[in-house]
Specification:
The structure is a single chain. With 379 residues, this protein is an alpha/beta fold. It has helices spanning 51-66, 86-92, 124-133, 136-146, 186-192, 205-211, 222-228, 255-260, 263-299, 308-326, 330-370, 375-378, and strands at 36-42, 70-75, 97-100, 149-156, 163-165, 179-181, 196-198, 216-217, 236-239, 248-254, 302-305. The strands form 3 sheets. It has a 5-stranded mixed beta sheet, with helices on both faces. The chain has a 3-stranded mixed beta sheet with strand order 5-9-11, with no helix packed on it. α7 (222-228) packs across α9 and α10 (308-326) runs antiparallel to α11. The longest helix has 41 residues, at 330-370.
């Protein structure tokens, strides 16, 4: 995650970036006091469905609801700053806000991962519950303020697939030596498997993939993967993803800008972000199934389940990583403890109600399909 303000992005080492600058040393944002225009930069290419369109919808909502009091001008990745320079640009006041995923900033504090997704973590619904009702937002505010920022949840892609590979993954041994694009704490798991994690922004994935720079790629899921044409380069699509069970997108604002807004303006931005958090998840739910079927039927994509022993080892490695992060600072321990305690609180309901329902629904509908129960309806 290049932090030098240039429009090019280095493939390696970018995620770690520069050290943190304290809020006190940040440049004051240049903003007017009323009827102002704010700039938003993103880590997504403008043409990318789902992520970039979510950023555009958020901007449109704020602009419409404010009645001209606020106007956000939106710059996609590379149009104003390089994708991973969105953080320092917003921090310094070069931009007023970013639309991104917080785990891109883990080089500053690994606790940032918990505000995007962590392996074996929350589903989208559970994540929103933790942020809004479990103390997550207060912890996020504390972390963001350390860097002169204010962040809000502004979207979710839901459970992600396990990624694309140049060979089927039948065992952990198959991971060894594989160069895979994968961000966040999942990179620690794949590194322990013997793979070589590579950090790349979304827009750089197609070129790296088709040039052979990487052997495998984890991106988002069928909806975005189809758009990027990943299925044209790799055939094997692994599932289910353990690494990103409910990946949140964030709206991060320069805290000086946020604090200068009046209560109404802040509420408009909060409302727009919350609305997009719902709509983005609905969009991915609506379009990913269709995209997966298309790749299987038209392009011969092979969807293969991860072996159980790989899943078990991933969980063990991830538990060790959680302990490591908790030991980094008192604040990190508070984040990890809050996250794990809330996960323990919501898992029984998710397992016994949501999970069991989904399992039984699938079983019943498979039987009904075999018995041609719905044929008259769908014809």
């Amino acid at each position: 995650m290049s932090m030098n303000g240039k429009t090019s992005v280095s493939r390696r080492g970018a995620l770690l970036g520069l050290g943190a600058a304290s809020a006190a040393t940040l440049a004051a944002p240049a903003v007017a006091q009323s009827g102002r225009t704010l700039t938003m930069v993103t880590t997504w290419p403008r043409s990318l469905p789902g992520l970039a369109t979510a950023a555009g919808r958020l901007v449109d909502r704020v602009n419409a609801m404010s009645g001209g009091d606020l106007r956000i001008e939106y710059f996609a990745a590379g149009e104003k700053v390089a994708p991973f320079d969105s953080f320092p640009a917003t921090q310094s006041g070069e931009a007023d806000m970013y639309h991104a995923a917080e785990y891109y900033w883990q080089g500053r504090n690994r606790a940032y991962n918990f505000f995007t997704t962590v392996p074996f973590g929350f589903t989208a619904t559970e994540f929103t519950a933790w942020i809004n009702n479990g103390g997550g937002q207060a912890l996020w505010d504390e972390l963001s303020a350390e860097f002169g920022l204010k962040a809000l949840m502004a979207g979710n892609t839901g459970v992600q697939m396990g990624g694309w590979y140049n060979r089927p993954v039948r065992s952990i041994e198959d991971m060894k030596g594989m160069r895979i694009r994968i961000p966040g704490l999942a990179a620690d798991i794949f590194r322990a498997f013997g793979a070589e994690p590579v950090s790349l922004p979304g827009g750089a994935i197609p070129a790296a993939l088709f040039s052979g720079e990487i052997d495998a790629v984890e991106w988002v899921g069928p909806y975005n993967d189809l758009e990027f044409g990943v299925h044209k380069a790799l055939r094997y699509y692994m599932y289910p993803g353990f690494h990103e069970p409910g990946t949140a997108v964030s709206l991060g604002m320069n805290k000086g800008v946020w604090d200068s807004l009046d209560a109404r303006q802040q509420k408009i931005i909060e409302t727009a972000a919350a609305a997009e958090n719902r709509e983005m998840l609905a969009e991915y739910s609506a379009k990913s199934g269709r995209a997966l079927t298309q790749m299987q039927v038209e392009y011969g994509t092979e969807v293969i389940r991860f072996p159980d022993d790989l899943y078990a080892e991933a969980a063990r490695i991830n538990a060790d990583t959680m302990q490591d992060i908790a030991g980094e600072s008192r604040f990190s321990r508070r984040v990890v403890e809050s996250f794990l305690e809330y996960r323990d609180r919501v898992m029984p309901f998710s397992k016994e109600m949501n999970g069991l329902y989904a399992e039984r629904r699938a079983s019943y509908l498979d039987q009904a399909k075999q018995q041609e129960v719905f044929d008259d309806i769908v014809d």
